[in-house]
């Protein structure tokens, strides 16, 4: 038996594979106790869970497009002109409009590398986080 290519499953298929893998492990464990059936069921379940996890990760990464980093000059102008509150992603070097952020970057899904600027005093923090030294 050959497991499907994770890239062909998609998000829903990945979730289904993980659920079936967990259910198969529980089912095989309850009917076999121990022995060869349990070993085979464990390998099958582990394969399904692994394949499903890969499919979920691949589907999630496909939803996040690559974004070109903005130059320092443009970022500095945008930092001064942006209406409060706004978000700054240090990882992909983008500045978001007020309605676009929820504590995470909408493009790269970074949480730790995302600075929410709510006060004028925090603009300098955002500038420093982006590494703008001019």
TrEMBL record:
Q: Which residues cross the membrane?
A: 9-31, 37-57
Keyword field: Membrane, Transmembrane, Transmembrane helix
Name of this chain's protein: Uncharacterized protein
Q: Which organism is it from?
A: Enhygromyxa salina
Recite the lineage of the species.
Bacteria, Pseudomonadati, Myxococcota, Polyangia, Nannocystales
